[in-house]
Design a protein that fits this description.
Blueprint: H1 11-14, H2 29-42, H3 61-70, H4 81-88, E1 91-92, E2 113-118, H5 127-142, E3 148-151, E4 159-164, E5 183-187, E6 196-199, E7 204-205, E8 211-212, H6 213-224, H7 253-263, H8 267-270, H9 284-288, E9 300-304, E10 307-312, E11 315-319, E12 326-330, H10 331-334, E13 344-348, E14 353-358, E15 361-366, E16 369-370, E17 376-377, E18 392-396, E19 401-406, E20 409-414, E21 419-420, E22 426-427, H11 428-431, E23 441-445, E24 448-453, E25 456-461, E26 466-472
Parallel strand pairs: 1-5, 2-3, 2-4, 4-6, 7-8
Antiparallel strand pairs: 5-6, 9-10, 10-11, 11-12, 13-14, 14-15, 15-16, 15-17, 18-19, 19-20, 20-21, 20-22, 23-24, 24-25, 25-26
Helix pairs in contact: 5-6
The structure holds zinc ion (2 copies).
Length: 480
Amino acid sequence: MKHFLLLIGLCGALSWALPILPQTEEVTAEDMQLAQKYLNSYYPEQEGTPVIRTRQDKIDANKLRQMQEFFGLKVTGKLDASTLEEMKAPRCGVPDIAGFKTFPLSPKWPKKDLTYRLQNYTPDMPRADIEEAIRRAWTMWSDVTPLTFTEGSGDSADILILFGAGVHSMIPFDPPFDGPNGEVGHAFSPAHGGYVHLDEDEDWTKDAKGTNLFHVAAHEFGHSLGLDHSKIPEALMFPKYIRSDPAKVRLHQDDVEGIQSLYGPSEEANGDGQSSGSESPTNLTEQVVDLCNPHISFDAVTSLRGETLFFKERFMWRKSPAQSNIEKDFISAFWPTLDGGIDAAYEVENKDTLFIFKGEQYWATKGNIIQPGYPKSIHALGIPHIVKKIDAAVYDKNTKKTLFFSSDKYWRYDETRNYIERRYPGKIAADFPGIGSTVDAALQHNGHLYLFSGSKQYEFDSKRRRVINVKKSNSWFGCQ
Ligand SMILES: [Zn+2]
Ligand SMILES: [Zn+2]
C-alpha cells in the first residue's frame, strides 16, 4: 500500500538517498531546536537515569539513536537529513518509549462493554460527520475483539474525547498541543483514564484533505485501550500520521495481535461457541494459567531490579520482596515486541541489563527499553548453530559468568570478556547431578542457584556440586 506523507511529500520516502548532513554547521539553529524539542517530548528521560544536560547546540546522541532505531532509519546518532525529515512529519504525541513504571500494572479495561463521550465538537466538521468518524474508529477495534463501544452521557462515560488547542486540560502530565501540524493528538492508557485529546489547531476533515478525524481517532483509541506504539510502519499504531485514503485505513496484523493479546479475539471469530460467551474478560488470564496448579512449570525465571520475574506463555508474574502480593502482567505490556513464549532470561545487575531469549534471537533491555541493535543471534554469543533455542540462562554474580542450558547440554559464558569458555558444552546430568538432564528455567537468588525442571525446582550448591533442596516450581507464591 502506498502512503502519502502529509507535510513533506515524497522527501521522507526518498531521503535515504540524500547525503547525510554532519551534525555541526549545516544544521540550522531552528532545526536543532526542533530536534531537541522532539527528543525531549517523545523520548523522555527514564526514571532513575541521571539527566545529563546537553548544551544548546548539542543533541543527546543516545536519544537520537533510539529515535532512529524506532523509525528504522540508519542509526548514526547524528542529526542527518532523513532524521530531520522524520521529525518534521505529523505524529501522535504519545512518547515512543515509556518509563518502566509508567506502564500500568493492568494495562487494559476490566470490562468489555465500554462507553465513550465527546466532550465537545470541532467547528471544522458537521456534528454528524464527527459522530460518524468516531463511531467508525471504534468499530475498527470492536471488529477484532469482544469489546463494544456505545455513546454514553455525563461524566460516567469510560472514555472522554476532547478537542483542544495549546494547554487543553487539567489532567496531570497532560502536555499542551503545539499548534497546526506536528502533534495531531494523544491519548492516555486505561490505567490513566483512557482520555483521548485531539489538537483543535489541526484542520479536521472526513476525507484526506486535512487531518482525517477517523484515522487519528482510531490510532488514539488504540492507546486508550492499552496499546503502545508499534515499530511497524504499516501498523495503525505507528506513531507517525501518514495521510492516506480513509476508506483504506485498516488494522495491520500487528495491531490485531496487539489488541487481542489484551482482550482476546472477537466472539464471532472465536467460533467454538463454548467458553467465550460466558466468561468475563477480566478472567481471561485466569483461564489460561493457574499459578497454583501443582504441575505448573515456567518458561523462564529471572531477577530484575530486585524483583523476581516468572514467565509462562504470554504472562509474567512479578514477585517483589517489599510486597506480599504477586503481580500478573502481559509480557507485551512491558515489551510490546515480545508477545510471549520466552525461552530464557537473565539479568546482569551491574549493567542494569536484562537479556531475553526467544528461539535463535535474544534482546538486551534496560527496564522495558529494548536496546538499539537487538535482537541479535544467539550464535553471535558462541552458541553452536545446531542449537535452535536456549532453555534457561542464569548469571552467577560471584563468578560473573552466565550459564546457558539447552537440551541436555550447557555452556558457560564469560560476561567480562564476552566469550564461551573453551571446555563447554558440558553435560547437565554429569555436572549437576540429581536434577535430571534438562533445565526449563534458572535463577540465582540470595546467592543460591535454583534450577527449574518441569514442576520441580532444585536448589543447587555449586561448590559442592549437589542438590540441597527440592521444591515445587511454584513454591515462591505461597500456594501450598
Ligand atoms: Zn500514538
Ligand atoms: Zn491532552
